[in-house]
Structures are given as C-alpha cells and as structure tokens.
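Morning, I've got a small favour to ask if you have a moment. The fold is given in discrete form, as structure tokens running alongside the sequence. I'd be grateful if you could look everything over and explain what you see. No rush at all, and the record is pasted right below.
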Amino acid sequence: MRLLRRILTWIGIVLGVFVLALVGLVALDYARDNGRLNAVTNTTIPGLGGNPDVRAYVARPQGQGPYPTVIMIHEFFGLNEDIVSKADLLAESGYLVIAPDTFRGSTTSLIPRAIYQVITAKPEEINADLDAVFAWLESQPEVDPNRIAVLGFCYGGRSSLAYSLHNDRIAATVVFYGSPETDPGILAALPGPVLGIFGGADASIPLKDVNDFEKGLEAAGIPHQISIYEGQPHAFVRGAEAIKAGGAQGEAWNEMLKFLDANFRQVSSRNRFDENQSYLAPFDIAYYLRLVFEHAFGSAHNTH
C-alpha cells in the first residue's frame, strides 16, 4: 500500500505540473494575441446589429475590378500567416480575397487552445461576422457582388459550407477537409455549386462521411465536385510556398482554381432561396476529438 500511495502521489505531481505548465503556456499565448493579429490583418470591417467589428486580411489582384471575390476562412488555429499567404497566392490569379478573423480576436498555434476556440465559437456569431464581411464586400466598387464565393480549411471548410447554407447569395463553395453535412434536405438549400477536397489518409473525416456528402449533394440536385487525394493527411494543403512546390497540394489548389473559374462564369444559373433562411452548424464533438488526435499524433502532425 505504501508503494502504491507513493506511485499515485508521483503521478498526481506529474499531472499537476503538466496542467500548470499547460495553463501557463496558454496564458502566455493569450497575451500574444493582439500582436499576432496585427501582423496578419490590414482591414477592419464594421460589425452589424451591435456585433463587434471584424478584423481581416484583404489581398487585391492587379488590374481593374470589379473582381470575382473569395471569402477565405481559416483553420481552427485562427487567422495566421499560413492563411495570409494563401490569400495572396489566390489574389495572383485575379481574385479579391478577404480572410476574416472568425474567432473575434483569438489566434493560436497550440492545439489545446485551438480546440477551445472552436468549442467557444458560437455558430450564430460566426454567421453574423461573415454577414458583416459579405455586406462590406457588396459595398465595395471593386467587388462584383454576383461573384462572391466562400472557401475554408478544416474548421473553415465546415464553416464555409454552413455559411453557404445561411446566405443564399454565395456563388460557390469550396470545402477543404471540413466535416461535411450529409442530409440532402439540408444540402438542398445551397445556392451554388460545391467543391469538396479531402485527404484519403485523414482519420478525422471518415471516407464514408465524404461519400455520404457526395450522395447527399447528388440527391439534393446541387452541382458538385468531390475529390479524395489518396494518401494525403488532414490539412495537407499548407502555405503558398508549399503549394507552389507542387505535389498533391499543388494539384488540389489548381483544381480549386479551375472550379472557381468555371463557376464564376455561370453565376446566373445558381439556385435562389428565401433570404431569411438560416443554418447553424451543430457542434460535432466526435469530429473534433478525431481532429485533436490527427493534429497531435496522426497523419496531420507533420503538416504544421
């Protein structure tokens, strides 16, 4: 018994030290938030309906507008340099790109805090902030209001799909390895075509879910293109330099460019729904538990 108590005591001490260290690390990370966001934002967008202003990064293409425009939603880490580099790269192809902070001032490189950001981000607030972004874009003379698409990565992929189900003026939707909706009755409200890009080795999103997503889109009559990149982990499309290097992430990026180009030429054929429709994505705890494992120990561990 004495040995057992000693072992349990040491286990408790080790766990206590670990928890204290983690709390201290997260607290230090919080203190750095403002500086990090300052480095990756260049625009402040007025909030709507009493909501706070939205900070964002805007990348503008060369030439004269009005431009086709893309709202780019970050991963669960928050708005960071990786997303900014992707926004700049997409702008090189002739798109105005806006990457908003949807965590209202929070960004991190720590997985525990990234999960906390997702857990505490309310779907109605995410949609409200994206509504502010959309309204701001419609007021800009350099933006073609009939050619505004939304795309996102990981958490942002799920959020992009959810926002398209909320806003019937979105011209096209791109989901990079975001947890998909599979109900045809819900997917029928999508106002435009969908591109879904997933990794075949992504344990956080079972291939069955991807296949059910494709079947749901087909049953709902939504134009779609679903691609699975064999052997690729979660979050395999990284920053601009990695994309330019080619491989699967370069192929996925080029697939997205072709999709946007094709569907921005066909915006007049998209569906129209009740402007008062609203969709709030349910919180899927099982997905985010799998996501934690993927980033901490699984195939996505080496992508960040």
Observations:
- The chain has two domains: 1-31, 40-303.
- The chain has a mean pLDDT of 87.
- The radius of gyration is 20 Å.
- The longest strand covers residues 143-153.
